[in-house]
Design goal:
The complex is a heterotrimer. By secondary structure, chain A is mainly α. Chain A contains 10 helices and no strands. The longest helix of chain A has 33 residues, at 188-220. Chain B has one domain: Up-down Bundle (Four Helix Bundle (Hemerythrin (Met), subunit A)). The chains are: A mainly alpha, B mainly alpha, C mainly alpha.
């Protein structure tokens, strides 16, 4: 598993697209919003948590199809299926690699971009915590969606349609945590619920993703 | 092809051909009576004026929208466990109906919300959950349409239905946490007699029954359609090979 | 017989659209069913 993780990370770094693209997309969405809603500091401060979360979610979405697509095309996925590592493990590792290359950078970039939206400095710790807790769920759910659409020729759009509704609970709890703390209320409950979502998805969805991968491998064989 | 692939769908078609005319007539009668009663003969209600009449299209479609998803979940499980082809096709057939029911519930809700709450749309938990349900239906049907291999499509959509069900319930609670709403509570709980007077309750029962029977008839028709279309595809493949 | 009161427009709209949706759904299901049946009969006809 470690070897697979290392391989995926190496590939992501060498190919270069991984981090760069997701982060650049995050930056661009955050920059575009003030153009859309106007430059008033008060308004931006109020909607900053939501914007940061939605932008993070979209950037995660953008890189999802890379989770399995390359390995599918060159046949390494079929090879992995015959390896002693169970498919569930493969799915989990792939999701972890996606998180390390996308979720983690997004989490670290969140507070920096928060400055652009005049986010209250006092809520930065909560923002960091919510992104750190929530983005793994985005990666795992995304891995499931990517597994479903991996065999399709034009899976990209379908992938978004399938995955975005599944992101709703994560988004709600994550953005709500930041918003509550910006309003001076405790964010603990929201963060705990968010943690629950993440742990639950990490525990269960790899099984669904593995089942789906097996189906796709079988039908293409 | 195994015996399951042929014999059982055949029996299903035979049963369906026998019951569909009955179901259709029953649905038509129930709907005409129920909706006609609701539309023409229901007195005005205290807080709603005559807008209470919208309940006869709103509540049944909303209930069907949810229950159809549950039926799809059961059918998906049957397919995954028993590999019963009719079951997977029935889930697909039901999804189309469910999508229309969701649209109907959302639309009539918006039309009702306008005079009652002064807005077409509010980010109220129930409304939001229905919108999310609508997205789930869309994704489910889109996946069916996108996968070419029929068995793989059935497998993938079934797994999606299972995962989607978990997330649909999760979203419902998340949305509750996120915003408390305007929508009145359920008027159709077991203590219904206390919540809603008989004059309104009886036509609603007829409408509910009508929607259920209509759904059954539609699922029978649409499932047999899917079976036949799949058989056509199989025959075409065989001819192409011969 | 009946009055619709001040919300006549909304009630009518809700009913008309709902009934139209039902009719469209039934119509589409029915048309597709007939097409499928015809196709299958054409293909299976010569053999039996």
């Amino acid at each position: 598993m470690i070897a697979l993780l290392r391989r995926d990370l190496m590939l992501a770094v060498r190919a270069g697209g991984g981090f760069g693209l997701g982060l650049a997309f995050f930056l661009i969405v955050v920059v575009l919003v003030p153009f859309g809603v106007g430059p008033e500091t008060e308004l931006l401060r109020r909607i900053a948590p939501g914007i940061l979360w939605v932008a993070a979610l979209l950037s995660a979405l953008l890189t999802l199809d890379r989770i399995f697509a390359l390995d599918w095309e060159d046949g390494s996925l079929a090879l992995l299926a015959t390896s002693p590592l169970p498919m569930e493990g493969v799915a989990l590792v792939k999701a972890a690699a996606h998180w390390l290359t996308t979720g983690l950078p997004l989490t670290l970039a969140g507070p920096v971009l928060g400055v652009l939206l005049s986010l209250d400095p006092a809520v930065v710790p909560v923002l960091l915590a919510s992104l750190a807790i929530g983005t793994p769920a985005l990666s795992v759910i995304g891995a499931f969606g990517a597994a479903v659409t991996v065999g399709l020729r034009r899976g990209g759009l379908l992938l978004s349609l399938l995955v975005l509704p599944l992101y709703v609970p994560t988004l709600i709890f994550g953005a709500e945590a930041v918003r509550l703390s910006a309003e001076g209320q405790g964010a603990g409950t929201a963060l705990l619920l968010l943690g629950g979502v993440t742990l639950g998805t990490c525990a269960l969805l790899p099984f669904a993703a593995a089942a789906v991968l097996r189906i796709n491998l079988r039908s293409s064989a | 092809m195994s015996i399951w692939e042929y014999a059982n769908p055949k029996r299903f078609i035979a049963v369906s051909d026998r019951v569909v005319p009955w179901l259709s007539w029953l649905a038509a009668v129930l709907l005409v009576v129920g909706l006609g009663w609701g539309f023409f003969f229901v007195p005005r209600a205290e807080n709603f004026e005559y807008s209470v009449k919208i309940i006869y299209v709103h509540v049944p479609s909303a209930m069907m929208a949810i229950n159809i998803w549950v039926m799809m979940l059961v059918a998906s499980l049957v397919w995954l466990i028993r590999r019963h082809h009719v079951s997977a096709l029935a889930a697909r057939a039901a999804a189309g109906v469910g999508l229309v029911m969701t649209v109907m519930a959302l639309f009539t809700g918006a039309v009702w919300g306008q005079p009652m709450w002064g807005t077409w749309w509010a980010w109220d938990p129930r409304l939001t959950s229905f919108l999310i349900l609508f997205l789930f239906y869309l994704g489910y049907l889109a996946l069916w349409a996108a996968v070419e291999d029929p068995d793989a499509a059935a497998d993938l959509t079934s797994v999606l239905c299972l995962v989607g069900s978990v997330f649909a319930v999760l979203s419902r609670y998340a949305v509750n946490f996120w915003n408390q709403g305007l929508h009145q509570g359920a008027t159709l709980s077991l203590d219904a007699e206390e919540n809603i007077a008989d004059v309104y309750w009886f036509p609603l029962l007829v409408c509910l029954a009508g929607f259920v029977v209509l759904f059954l008839a539609l699922v029978f028709v649409r499932t047999t359609t899917e079976i036949r279309l799949r058989r056509v595809a199989a025959l075409q493949r065989r001819e192409a090979m011969a | 017989m009946t009055g619709l009161g001040e919300y006549a427009a909304e009630i009518l709209l809700a009913y008309v659209v709902s009934i139209a949706l039902i009719v469209a759904l039934v119509g589409m299901s029915w048309a597709r069913a007939r097409r499928a049946k015809r196709l299958l009969d054409e293909m299976e006809g010569p053999r039996e």
